Amino acid sequence: MSSQPKVRTCLWFDKEGKEAAEFYVSLLPDSHIETAFAPGQDGPPLIVEFTLAGAPYMALNGGPMFKHTPAASISVLTKDQEETDRLWNALVADGGEESMCAWLIDRFGVSWQIIPERLPQLLQADDKEAAGRAHAAMMKMRKINIAALEAAFNNQ
Questions:
Q1: Element (H, E) at 9
Q2: What percentage of residues in the chain have a pLDDT greater than 90?
Q3: Alpha carbon 33 to chain centroid, angstroms
Q4: What is the pLDDT of residue 1?
Q5: H or E element: which one contains 154?
Q6: Alpha carbon 89 to chain centroid distance?
Q7: pLDDT category, 85, cuts 50, 70, 90?
Q8: Rounded to whole angstroms, how far apart are CA atoms 53 and 36?
Q9: N or C: less crowded end of the chain, CB within 10 Å?
Q10: Which CATH superfamily is domain 7-64 in?
């Protein structure tokens, strides 16, 4: 019986797949590089298989013809503001770009959503008016600020 996952998300890179995979696994617990396959002795690996917070991924160095798009993103549910800040800051460093409402693009062009676990709790609250205020506050944010969401929710 194979221990390989049946489904694995593949991220296409020009030639920096190994560098991206190494960076990504450094950010989250339960993450590691599994294998790297290089058809020749020169140059970067063609394929790097890695696990990111328990989820299987593959980085493919396939050349420059395909680019990443925000239509596919890696979504990370964070436990608190500290983890949100740490991941956000690491991912936008060295050429990454902030976007709106918890979205960013890292220096490799991969889109991410860094979502504090409190955000969906507030947005899905039974008090629809309070949830609406939290949603309106979120729509003005780039990185999510939990305290500001709570204040909006509580109408402060």
A1: strand 9-13
A2: 92
A3: 17
A4: 47
A5: none
A6: 12
A7: very high
A8: 18
A9: N
A10: 2,3-Dihydroxybiphenyl 1,2-Dioxygenase, domain 1 (3.10.180.10)
